[in-house]
Amino acid sequence: MYNILICDDDKDIVGALKIYLTNPDYKLFECYNGKEAVEAVKNNDISLILLDIMMPVMDGIEAMVKIREFSNAPIILLTAKSEDSDKVLGLNVGADDYVTKPFNPAEVIARVGAMLRRYTKLGSDIADKDHIVVGGLELNNDSRQIFVDGEAANLTPKEFEILRFLMMNKGKTFSPAEIYKAVWHEEPLSGDKTIAVHIRHIREKIEIDPADPRYIKVVFGRGYILEG
Description:
alpha/beta, 13 strands
């Protein structure tokens, strides 16, 4: 049984989400502002949180910061199209995913299911030769697929190899030349920008905001590092 908290100040939206998520495996909790959400997570074993951004008393961003002080439960933001800056801020301070209003019921169900599977079955960071998981990134070596927050990302073969190398070595910094040698198995030419170009393309496919990446980051003067 998964305990899912739905928090939105619009009771019609809460009601609609409860209908979408009707499932014998889900127990649904509801609240209507950020303060109520914080208390609900404190007092219940919440498995996943659907959290609106714009709410009275305490908004979703402030509530999420407080929740993250004591809970690692996945948080999916409920956002309006006009809230792009708040969406990016939310993802940077602790949200795991977002869905945009008006909701597509199938998308809500899929994102909740994917997040629960990752959180409860895969745990935190897992790495082996067949399946690598770092944060919201999932790499399957057998199918040569990359999933970002449950959705497939269309990487080229070389982009896949670069991302796999970095994921298998999470937390380690590599120069462009080291990455090139690991993927192409040969020395790069002097001044070669191949890795920089590929990293830019990978970021465009796996990052919410490629200009402010969550995963592949630059270590000034040293190279690239993949963080969870």
